[in-house]
Amino acid sequence: MAGEVLGIDVGGSSVKAGLVDLKGGRLAGELIAAPTPRPSTPVAVTNVLAALAGRLPASAGRVGVAFPSVIKEGTAYTAANIDAAWVGTDGASLASQALGRPVLFLNDADAAGLAEMRWGAGRGCRGTVVMLTFGTGIGTALFAGGKLFPNTELGHLELRGMDAEKWTSARVRTAENLDFPAWIERVNEYLAEMHRLFWPDVFILGGAVSERFAEFAPLLRSPAELRPAQFAGQAGVVGAALAATES
Fold this sequence. Notes:
This protein is of the alpha/beta class and 247 residues long. The chain is built from 8 helices and 15 strands.
């Protein structure tokens, strides 16, 4: 459909896709999803991308793919929540071959942050903003003066002798059956360390758990302003589509 761009968000547990209306900054139809394959090798994941794209109406132009890795010029350099075979893989070229169209690959949290800064919780913020996505891991996107500093990967910041995401992610909350008070104590510890290092003006808390922000917001502590993401689980798809048209 004219004016609509395909965005895809690859996560550790699911792959989501949708057509995005970039004039309105919203999904143009339904958000569809499929489980992330096990093992999540380049070929297996690329097959899922093609299958999801085939279920949606045709769209023109480049496709945006948000991916859980440091991405430089379309190539993956890390693989914390995806198969290690991705390291060194030119994901953009591989996906382009499968979809028959140009593809832009970018870090998944960066994509989510772009959506929130353009149309969501970060709109109009000119100071330092840190977007945090709580899911299988913790994704981070850092903005200063509205500009993205890409591939920060601060979910791997050391906390209690381990990667912070192994202590504080939404997956850990589910696996350890933590209630909100217990989990938010861990989140507050992480926020304190992030604030000590970056002194942000605003933290945007994203991921599917952000839809329940009102339930746990009174438990949060930070000198920075705390805002729930407006796009929640759709942010990666929307931001990937945005990046595909502007990069």
